[in-house]
Specification:
By secondary structure, the chain is mainly alpha-helical. The chain is built from five helices and two strands. A hairpin with a 6-residue loop joins strand 1 and strand 2 (85-88).
Length: 103
């Protein structure tokens, strides 16, 4: 039997796998930040993580956000200004919320 996997199923599976390798909880925190809404530069994400008590480097945050954008495909990116501005794609909001709730 051949089962067609939906894009949503693939995104959900990638998210679960991504969070499965999250030893510090930082990935979950970044996903929560995007879920809370708004658009963020890498620096915004970095500052939010610092405020929430995470010991992170700017380069580490930059790599993490970039990876979320390319590997997970859940972020939209606006490159018109001096800095890339990331936000959670509306289509994936529910998937991210349900994965975080169950994780």
């Amino acid at each position: 039997m051949f089962v067609l996997e939906t894009i949503e199923d693939r995104v959900r599976a990638r998210l679960i796998k991504y969070l499965g390798r999250d030893d510090t909880g930082i990935r979950k925190e970044v996903l929560k930040l995007f879920l809370e809404g708004g658009s963020f530069t890498t620096n915004d994400v970095y500052e939010q993580l610092q405020k929430r008590g995470y010991n992170v480097s700017y380069r580490g945050v930059s790599a993490m956000v970039g990876l979320m954008n390319t590997r997970l495909g859940i972020l939209s990116i606006n490159v018109t200004g001096d800095h890339n501005i990331y936000s959670l794609k509306e289509d994936y909001r529910e998937i991210v919320a349900s994965v975080l709730k169950n994780y």
